[in-house]
Amino acid sequence: MERAQSTDVGLDDLTRTDPGSLAGCYLRRFWQPLCLSADVEAGRARREKIMGQFVTVYRGESGAIHVVADRCAHRGVQLSVGWVQGDEIRCFYHGWKFNGAGQCVEAPAETPGFASRMKVRAYPARDYLGVVFAYLGEGEPPVFPRYPELEDESEGVLVCAARAPVPCNFFQRVENAVDQVHVAFAHGDVFGPEGAADIPDYSVEETSYGLCARGRRPGKQDRLTHFHMPNINVMRVPPGKDEVGWSPNVVWRVPVDDGHHRSVNIRRVRKAPGAAPIENNYKRNVTDKQVDYAREILAGRMRLDELDPTRDRAIIVAVQDNIAQMGQGPVAPRQEDHLGRSDVGVVAVRRLWLDELRRLANGEVLRDWRRPNDGLRLTSGVEKELA
Ligand code: FES
Ligand SMILES: [Fe+2]
Q1: Which atom of ligand 1 is closest in space to residue 92's alpha carbon?
Q2: Is any ligand 1 atom within 6 A of the Cβ of residue 122?
């Protein structure tokens, strides 16, 4: 599925991730989150769309997670409506059964030996910190990247969310990750008390994993955000409802298709005194509204200040970000931007991506993006800088 050689890589290539597209091939070289582990019970299957492609995610009765093709090799029926039996999935239409490696192990109406010649595509998959990840690229998957700052159970309770698709291109959200200036305006009312609402003196450094963006504000601590190639943001975020303290947050911006993306995020949070216990893998159930509110506000049928400010401010922040991202249109024509000095992050992230896409198009060796071996330990030293 690798794309034909090309050297004329441009901004539009950053937004196209269907199978066979250049950015699609690039993103498929990294493990990507598909859904929450809790969304796939043992013995169940579900259909997920990612980068313009559907896949079947199922959990065997043993608890093992598997990701295989969307459609049966026989006559193309959607495999997610079939039955999970043991660690295999049986097609709804004529009962062909496939194992987690995609091998057909039974074709009940066919002659002996027939099934062994049939296969569907299967993808390496694993559960990690409450999220199902898959490798959708060619060949062997890269080393699975771990996030030690999220693994430390003494740091609080694990909370993950696979948010509802937002109707705009994922790269708009990727660029937002290295834009601290928007915090002063889009989130000014929410972050004001933490002093993040001032316009920072902003710089961006290239690192072994991507970019580290630093916002300096006179008399205040620097704010650091870490962008990990190709679509991950690591930062600390302020407490949501029933939480206390800023929490480490890792968020993936995942294309659903070119006109939609979803955020999948994992945090460690501490419960506020007196609040009800927060359950592991707790999934926020209001995520669809964050898109609906943004749509209503953009259409002029509602105003942001009509949202109850006493509600969970994480939700208000998400609505604000959705307004900013959706407000650029489904796939923003980036050639029409007029960038200034505060857009150093946007310029840097485009450059990293375009360099990599050119290498990929020309068959050159890609960069080996690595986090420090023990991760970016937000719990020691760096935590103070990020708080
Ligand atoms: S389409 Fe799946 S068994 Fe016939
Ligand atoms: Fe934001």
Answers
A1: 2
A2: no
- CA atoms of 379 and 383, how far apart (whole Å): 5
The count of other CB atoms within 10 Å of the CB of residue 142 is 14
E strand or H helix at 361:
helix 344-361
- Residues 22, 29: contact at Cβ < 8 Å? no
72 CA distance to ligand 1 middle (Å): 6
Q: How far apart are CA 383 and CA 371, in angstroms?
A: 16
Q: Is CATH 2.30.42.10 correct for 33-134?
A: no
Q: Is 94 in the pocket of ligand 1 (CB under 6 A)?
A: yes
- Residues 143-198 have pLDDT tens digits of 999 998 899 888 788 888 888 899 999 999 999 988 988 988 998 887 765 555 67
Gap between the Cα atoms of 364 and 377, Å rounded: 33
- Rounded to two decimals, the pTM is 0.91
Q: Is the CB of 114 under 6 A from ligand 1?
A: no
Site to probe by mutation for ligand 1, drawn from 68, 70, 75 as the one with most ligand atoms within 8 Å of Cβ, is 75
Q: Whose CA is nearest to atom 4 of ligand 1?
A: 94
Q: Who contacts 283 (Cβ-Cβ below 8 Å, separation ≥6)?
A: 36, 38, 39, 160, 161, 162
End-to-end CA distance of the chain: 43
User: Which residue has the CA at smallest separation from atom 3 of ligand 1?
Assistant: 94
Give the distance (Å) from ligand 1 centre to CA of residue 150.
42
Spell out the domain ranges in the chain.
33-134, 148-386
Is any atom of ligand 1 closer than 6 Å to the C-beta of 360?
no
**Which CATH number describes the domain made up of 148-386?**
3.90.380
